[in-house]
Structures are given as C-alpha cells and as structure tokens.
Amino acid sequence: MDTNMTTMAIAVFDIDGVIRDVSGSYRRAIADTVEHFTQTAYRPSSADIDRLKSEGVWNNDWDASFELVCRYLESQGQSRDRLSFDYETLVAFFQSRYRGPDPENMTGYICQEPLLVNPAYLESLTQAGIPWGFFSGAMRAEAAYVLEGALGLADPVVLAMEDAPGKPDPTGLFATLKQLETRYSSAENAPVVYVGDTVADLYTVSQAKEQDPKRIWIGVGVLPPHVQESEERKNAYIASLEKAGAAIVLGNVKELTPALIGELVRGEG
User: Most buried of the four, 70, 180, 194, 247, by CB within 10 Å?
Assistant: First the structure.
C-alpha cells in the first residue's frame, strides 16, 4: 500500500461469523457446554443462542454459555448463587471442545471452520488504499489460527480478547485504529468501517461514535451463515442488526467492495 495515498477509509473486521464460519465450532461448543452443565437437560438451539446474543452484551462465548446455564437452572427454581460448578470449570470444558483436550495442539472444533473470505479480497482493499485490521473477542491464539494459519496473513493488525475489554466497549477498536494509523500515516482521522455479525459489534460502533464524534463511523452488518438457512430467520436477523445501527447488512463480507465502502463514506460525508 502506498502510505502517501489519501485514505478513503479504514476497514476493521470482527473475525467470528465474518472471516470464519463458527456455527459448527464456537456455537457447537456453547451448546455442548450448556448441555453438560445442565446434566443433559437442556441443549440450546442456534436460535436460543441468537436470542441471547441479540441482547448485545454476550459477545464472549464463555459468558454466553454460563448465562444460558444459569437461566435454565433459574427456570427450574434453582439460584445462580448456589451453583455446583464455578466459571473457570465451565471455561475449561468449553475450551476442551473448541480447541481440543491439549490447549497447545488445536484438534477441536476450531479445525473445522470454513473460511468466509480469501486473501484476494483483502488484497483488493490494499490495492484501493484501504488499510484493514481485525478487532475480535476471540483469544489471540485462536485469531492467529485463522488469520495467519488458514488465511496466511503476515503480521496482520489484530486486537484479541487478551488485549482489550469485551465488546461493546470500543477500547479495542480504538487500539486497532491506532496501530493502523501508526503503520499508515495517511490513515489518521480517516472514516472507519467496522464489520461485524452481532448486535454487540454494532453497539461498539455506536459507543465509538459517542466517544469520538468528530470521526465518521460506519457499522456494517454481515449475516453469519447459520441464519441464512431460512428467509424468516434471515429477515429477523437483518432487522436486529439494522436496529442496532448497521448502515447496511450484507450476506457475505466480500460484498463490501472498495466501491461500496466509497459509497458508504460519501453517504456519511
């Protein structure tokens, strides 16, 4: 990328549901975990998980799993203050499903995640003078597994779970931008497009806008694959992302071309 080129915008991407399909991995691990800690009494459906995440504060899948277990137990007249397990035990079980039993050698559901983007798409942004990076709630090693391992990206700018508070807190988004602006000086104060698949992602954009109103912030929603299996569910999901502030909702991240980014920026200008 020509660092002297005027930057039209900066693109920052969430990873799960945007860069990789996690319907058979993270979401499967949520369901396994809830089933295990409710003694097989309750296995949440994909729609159950979506309903919880539509509240906008359950971006962390460990927290989401814990909350679903607690809500089920409360529905059975039990108190979440008197659980027979602790949060760390639940996290360890979740990770044993998602990463696999050996945390240093990933053999779990993470190995079965289809990619939703390819290096050529990211290169098209680079060629258009659009710096790009990633802000995700995934752990650093799990983000590296897909970005560096599966996509083959060299030294991508990425903020992960260990680096910032969870979404919708925009601290990690600001830190991602700072790294990109350091790498590409022409990107300073450029409009920002943040691309995510959840209500929490779009709330992050809203909070960033509140904290830095002089900058142009554009939230772009992407439909994760699992909600596109029925028209009714797809439409409901689009509505929830639009209500949360999405300027546009796309079926796949690759639809966010440099030309479309230009249109979105001009629409905000």
Answer: 194
| pLDDT tens digit sequence for 54-73 | 998 998 999 999 999 999 99
3-state DSSP of the chain:
CCCCCCCCCEEEECCECCCECCCCCHHHHHHHHHHHHCCCCCCCCHHHHHHHHCCCCCCCHHHHHHHHHHHHHHHCCCCHHHCCCCHHHHHHHHHHHHCCCCCCCCCCHHHHCCECCCHHHHHHHHHCCCCEEEECCCCHHHHHHHHHHHCCCCCCCEECHHHCCCCCCCHHHHHHHHHHHHHCHHHCCCCEEEEECCHHHHHHHHHHHHHCCCCCEEEEEECCHHHHHCHHHHHHHHHHHHHCCCCEEECCHHHCCHHHHHHHHHHHC
Residue 62 CB neighbours (<10 A): 22
Question: pTM of the full predicted structure?
Answer: 0.90
List pLDDT tens digits, range 219-248.
999 999 999 989 999 999 999 999 999 999
- Residue 66 tokens read as 């814990």
Q: Confirm if 77 and 112 have CB atoms less than 8 A apart.
A: no
* DSSP β-ladder status, 10-13 and 217-222: unpaired
- Rounded to an integer, what is the distance from CA 230 to the centroid of its chain? 22
Phi, psi at residue 256, to the nearest 5°? Answer: -85, 75
Residues facing 143 on adjacent strands: none
